């Protein structure tokens, strides 16, 4: 089944009505879509089934989706348009899993903050195991090196739920390290440093996953967690990684080199600030990648 509908801009108000044809799909049609897909201007919209729902923090739900369609793929850092039957607004959520998880298990993961946006409300209040939705990949914010590309270091700067696409990139970098170590070939990944800021430690998402990667690759992956409004005691296991206060421009400048790429995702003022600081420090624009919310 093929339906031609113009491509949406992520976050566009136009999402409310331009996807009407898709949103009228019945549950039986969605079930059929697990074996087929809808193409929008050469981009694939694939059926997906919720196979995991968990609380990642007091305000964030984590979803695991099964996407059986073999034509569905993504690059680390990209997002999906998220279509919910019966909900007239289309969501836009960054993927936080690695492409390798999709390749091996046909799974992707999302982490969605509670807001009054209808798709987020549905995820927090109505989504259950086996709920059927549809997804389409988009975005130019990604890390997708080819085996013969020059080795690069990464600095990932995250604020709040802006960690989502950066976690996907971090996990992809870890997969590249594993492939190089086990097979002696593939892309030669440099170092990765994550600088991640949130209100308090309860809102630092994926803490365990991140620290597991730091411990697995102590010479290759490092992280620094920043908390801005911490009111409770910080646990002993987190304390070595915690700085109380915002990420500073001095910290960022310490990692500038010609081999380093910077990826930034967080609230727009934070993204604007660090991208301008890097430019003023003579980092080439093509080495500064950022994702803005709107």
TrEMBL record:
GO molecular function, one term: oxidoreductase activity
UniProt keyword list: NAD, Oxidoreductase
PROSITE patterns xref list: FAD_FR (PS51384)
Pfam families named among the record's database cross-references: NAD_binding_1
Residue ranges of domain FAD-binding FR-type in the record: 37-146
Gene3D superfamilies hit by this protein: Nucleotide-binding domain of ferredoxin-NADP reductase (FNR) module, Translation factors
Any single Gene Ontology cellular-component annotation: mitochondrion
Name by which UniProt lists this protein: Oxidoreductase NAD-binding domain-containing protein 1
Species the sequence originates in: Muntiacus muntjak
């Amino acid at each position: 089944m093929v339906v031609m509908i113009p491509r949406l801009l992520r976050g566009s108000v136009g999402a409310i009505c331009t996807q009407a044809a898709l949103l009228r799909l019945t549950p039986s049609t969605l079930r059929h879509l697990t074996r087929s897909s809808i193409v929008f201007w050469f981009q694939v919209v694939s059926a997906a089934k919720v196979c995991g729902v968990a609380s990642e923090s007091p305000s964030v739900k984590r979803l695991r989706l099964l996407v059986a369609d073999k034509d569905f793929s993504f690059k680390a850092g990209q997002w999906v348009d998220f279509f919910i039957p019966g909900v007239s607004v289309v969501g836009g959520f960054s993927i936080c899993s690695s492409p390798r998880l999709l390749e091996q298990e046909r799974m992707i993961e999302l982490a969605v903050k509670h807001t009054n946006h209808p798709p987020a409300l549905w995820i927090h209040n109505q989504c259950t195991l086996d709920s059927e939705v549809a997804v389409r990949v988009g975005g130019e914010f990604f890390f997708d090196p080819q085996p013969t590309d020059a080795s690069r270091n990464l600095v990932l700067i995250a604020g709040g739920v802006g960690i989502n696409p950066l976690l996907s990139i971090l996990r992809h970098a870890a997969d590249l390290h594993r492939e190089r170590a086990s097979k002696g070939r593939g892309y030669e990944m440099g170092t990765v440093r994550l600088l991640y800021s949130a209100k308090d430690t309860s809102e630092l998402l994926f803490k365990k996953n991140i620290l597991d990667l730091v411990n697995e690759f102590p010479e290759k992956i490092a992280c620094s967690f920043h908390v801005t409004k911490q009111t409770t005691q910080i646990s002993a296991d987190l304390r070595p990684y915690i700085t109380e206060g915002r990420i500073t421009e001095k910290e960022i400048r310490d990692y500038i080199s010609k081999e380093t790429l910077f990826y930034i995702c967080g609230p727009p003022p934070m993204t604007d600030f660090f991208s301008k600081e890097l430019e003023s420090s003579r980092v080439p624009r093509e080495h500064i990648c950022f994702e803005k919310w709107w």
